[in-house]
Amino acid sequence: MPAPVNPVLIKHEAMRDEHLQDRIADAITKFSGSMPFIYIHIVWFALWVSLHVEKFPFGLLTMLVSLEAIFLSTFVLISQNRADERRQLLADSEYGVVQSEEKQNEELLALSRQILDLTKEIHKLTTASKA
User: Fold this and answer.
1) Are 38 and 51 in contact (CB under 8 A)?
2) Are 75 and 25 in contact (CB under 8 A)?
3) I want to staple 16 with a disulfide (CB 3.0 to 4.6 A). Which of 10, 22, 68, 108 is the partner?
4) Alpha-carbon dihedral of residues 109, 115, 120, 121, nearest 10 degrees?
5) Can you tell me the mean pLDDT for 51-63?
């Protein structure tokens, strides 16, 4: 049974789904963090070298890989920003819950004090009537 998802996170996902650029960034980040991405690169580099696409020291390959690294690092930053947004939304949501629970606890303490005071008064009345 999957864990329940926080409604705040559901709303955040819906907001991200509204924007094409967020959906694209999420898809690229998801794919670039997968094993198929690694396998594609292994095949790509092996073919590049074995088919002699260019001569050693592989200047074009180096440039392409460097450009890819620049873009991938940008997508990593986008992913981290998204994770930070999610953490902040969860923290804000939890803070609201804590504030609500604190108010409820104060109300319960006040009711408990009233019950204690009433119990003391009843005890006084019952002991005073016996005397």
Assistant:
1) no
2) yes
3) 22
4) 130
5) 93
